[in-house]
Structures are given as C-alpha cells and as structure tokens.
C-alpha cells in the first residue's frame, strides 16, 4: 500500500510516520508513505503562496485551484499506477470501517489535506475526488484526518498487524459488525472485580458463545444504531465516478 499525502504542513507527519505500527510497516516494506508539499506547485515561485481571499468576500483564505490541481496531477504521474484520490473535507462521506475496507482495497491512495477555509470548488469539479470526512466536526486542517485514514487502512494491509486474526475481530469488522466483546487480562481479581469465570474455563465453545452474547449486548446498549434493519448509512457507498462538471456549473 502506497500513501501519497499532499499537504501544506509536511513536518506534521514526521513524528507520526516515524513511530509504532506505521514505522514497522514501512520498515518491512508493506507500506510506503510519501509526503508532498503543495507549496512546491505554487505558480508564485517567490512567496510560494497557495491561498487567496474568497470571491464574494467573507472570512479566511481559500486554497487555489492553480496550485492544488497541478500538485495532484504531478503526484499522480510519479508512478505508473494512478492512486485513488481522497479529499479530506468535513463535507465528505463519513469515514466508517466499511469505508476503511474500501480504501484498503486500493494499492495507492492520495490524501489531499485542506487548510484555512478549504478548497476552491473547482478543485473538486476538476479532480472528482472521493471526499471523506472523519466526523461531524471541523478540524483546522486535513493532516490529522489523513493520519486517521493511514492508521486505519494500514491495519488492514496483510502482515501489518502482528496477529493477522486481530483486525478480523475488531469492532465494526466483517466478523464483528457490532462492538467487540469485553476483554480481560491479569490479574484475575482487582479491587473486588473478577474476570468472568467462563473466560478461565478453557472451554472454547462456551467462551465463543459468551463473547458473541457480550458483543451483541454491548452493541445494543451503546450503539443500537448499528443494528438498524436498513443497514449501513448511505455515506458508506463510494461515490459514482462522474466526468468533471464544467467549472461555473451549479452544484449541490
Ligand atoms: C477549517 S477546515 C475548512 C472547513 C470549511 N470551511 C467547511 O466549513 O466545510 C480546513 C480543512 O480541514 C480539513 N477538515 C476539517 N474538518 C474535517 C473533517 N471533519 N474531516 C476531514 N477533514 C477535515 C479539510 O481538509 C478542510 O479543508
């Protein structure tokens, strides 16, 4: 799996990429991370400006189409295999484990991080990205959202998580569509709280049964919405790939 991150703040990634699971995945050749500074594609060679004031007035600055589009095109051309372009935006379809699984199916992802007031609309119109939000709140930049995606997706790359069975049984996984069952480890008793005796029984069938029931009960108590008969929300569907609309055309 190859990630190309397009950002105005490349230095934010050094700590994250240099640590833990992702570092090990990179060292073992399972994951590649390439960070690109959008400023390098600014037509303003002197000041490397990438943003400007919004037409029509209003607060803040908007990322310019003539920086971002050439940047995405140049990064796409860096390998023979164009990547799946993800635009991080609070206006995108919401990230869920189903969406994470979809993203993990691509061998290469481009993660386009916004800043300030976001992107000039023509970037979306020209590039037709898969717009993804990590939740209904507004971050100051797409970088932390890109890290969330890299983390969740790379866990699904075979070999990245030590025990290959691990991700299969996590909450929201195909095996465990609700929440994972309660977990316990040593000591057996702490401040009067004991480990359920079935987990100490060595009877694998009974343990599996207890875990299944515990998972269902926890999901019912905490996230009953996961059991809705209508299935996952419509935001779980990948977008239809449409030819770019003409700039200036009205969009929803
Ligand atoms: C301050 S936000 C811009 C928000 C924009 N004015 C709006 O209301 O839709 C700046 C950037 O942070 C990123 N961002 C903010 N919230 C996000 C979220 N919930 N999910 C993914 N990216 C987010 C996006 O890349 C966005 O372009």
Show unreliable segments.
247-251
Strand content: 15-25%
Record field, number of beta strands: 9
Helix content: 25-40%
Order of helices and strands: EHHEEEHEHEHEHEEH
As for the CATH topology of the largest domain, it is Alpha/beta knot
The main β sheet shows up as: 5 strands, parallel
- CATH architecture descriptor of the largest domain: 3-Layer(aba) Sandwich
Report the C-alpha radius of gyration, rounded.
22 Å
Mean pLDDT: 91
What structural class do the secondary elements suggest?
alpha/beta
Chain-wise SSE layout:
Layout: E1 2-7, H1 12-17, H2 20-27, E2 32-37, E3 51-52, E4 62-63, H3 65-76, E5 84-94, H4 97-104, E6 108-112, H5 121-127, E7 130-133, H6 143-154, E8 189-190, E9 193-194, H7 204-222
Parallel strand pairs: 1-2, 1-6, 5-6, 5-7
Antiparallel strand pairs: 3-4, 8-9
Helix pairs in contact: 3-5, 4-6
Bound molecules: S-adenosylmethionine (SAM).
S-adenosylmethionine (SAM) binds next to strand 5.
Short description:
This protein has 252 residues and is of the alpha/beta class. Helix content is 29%, strand content 16%.
